[in-house]
Amino acid sequence: MSWDWQVFCKNTLEGTVEATCWAKGGDQTYLEWMLQAWGWTLSVAACAWVVAIVVGGLVGTMRTLPNSPIAVRIGNAWVELFRNIPILVQLFIWYFVVPKLFPSMRQVPGFLLVVFALGFFTSARIAEQVRAGVQALPRGQRYAGMAMGFTTAQTYRYVILPMAVRIILPPLTSESMNLLKNSSVAFAVSIAELTMFAMQAQEETARGIEIYMAVTALYALSAFAVNRVFAFIERKVQIPGFIVAGGTGGGH
Amino acid sequence: MDLSFFSWDLISKYVVAGFWFSIQLTVVSTLGGILFGTVLALMRLSGKPLLAWPATIYVNGMRSIPLVMVILWFFLLVPIIIGRPVGAEYSANITFIAFEAAYFSEIMRAGIQSIPRGQVFAGQALGMSYAQNMRLVVLPQAFRNMLPVLLTQTIILFQDTSLVYAIGAYDLLKGFVTAGKIYGRPEEAYLLAAVVYFILCVSLSFLVKKLQARIAIIR
């Protein structure tokens, strides 16, 4: 078989090849469409990442609180709930069931519902890592905070969390890459992201291999960029002499 | 919310077939994935660049793209490679074996590396060849050490099988979605699907925990 990379310069409406690969007026080439889809993928992943970090951080911390068995229980239940249902099913529930059950959610745009689905799904995994990170610290750290007269909140803010975050940076890196990859499930609710583009453009142009190659490359590139950003952060916040325990994130 | 449409009739008509496919896909891709994953892990640890490099590229490549894209790729490529159209279910099996092999290989690699060097030396001292040493000394222990992790990966794999939705294969989720469409109750069907997946995954992880306590090697 032969390559036909010109497919990306084709106008999506007329199917004619644009000389500049950039269509005039309101039209679009497949290249433009793909870049737009890439933008959607990155936006979904970035917004979901913020939700996941905030919720995951809170729930994970909750699960390590001393003398609050109820908070620990709620945190554990949260993790079990969001970890044991496939992301696609969770996405369908957010997108189709939640607006039906709660009329106030009907105004919420579909984009945000996908962000919630991905964000909460990932929050359970991050909560698990945060818990592990906090528990990896020697007990003396907590006692040291207490001996300084810190409240529990202060102990977490100034002693425990700064260290725990550094410990969990490596697994957090892979989880963030997973989040980016998992954003591909948004195709199932017709968000115009990369996978959706791949499926539709493949059908329209019948040049599946070229389209998939480009989309795959964009995913790999984005995941690699996430990886580099985290490696940079890790170097920046590193404390000399403090050797971080190795950890790996499972799953995908 | 009206769950009264839910009946045994509906389950046996739409859900059971999907359920069996999900289970079949999970079992086949776990076994196939562990088999090829172990081969990949051995290639990477062989110390021979000609073997290690391709395996490394394969594993890292598979791990850096979304599973949905891998599913789409194989659905496109398998018919071209074998020269005849294949069903989504057939393609899904091949995809999951190939994809999960990358993840299982990382687990097996960690497992093999967790075996103390002394074990390998002991095998060599007994005059065992590389293959004998691997088969009789290293791999059985690596496998035992990694069994809980392998099973946890299997639970994740089971959840991931729902992504064959992308190519329209008839799995557990598709069974519920179809039933919901036919009975005009899609929302309830999604919720029921969530409950079924939840119960299955929670019971499986409970079993893994039990097993972990039983087989742990005390050192």
Write a structural description.
The complex is a heterodimer of chains A (252) and B (219). Chain A is mainly α. The two termini of chain A are 33 Å apart. The C terminus of chain A is likely disordered. By secondary structure, chain B is mainly α. Chains A and B meet through α2, α3, α6, α7 and α8 of A and α3, α6 and α8 of B. Chain A: InterPro entries: AA_ABC_transptr_permease_3TM, ArtM/GltK/GlnP/TcyL/YhdX-like, MetI-like, MetI-like_sf. Chain A: This is Amino acid ABC transporter permease.
Layout of helices and strands:
The complex is a heterodimer of chains A (252) and B (219).
Chain A: H1 30-62, H2 69-83, H3 87-101, H4 110-136, H5 139-147, H6 152-182, H7 194-205, H8 208-237
Helix pairs in contact in A: 1-4, 1-6, 1-7, 2-4, 3-4, 4-6, 5-6, 6-8, 7-8
Chain B: H1 8-45, H2 49-63, H3 67-82, H4 88-113, H5 117-125, H6 130-160, H7 172-182, H8 186-215
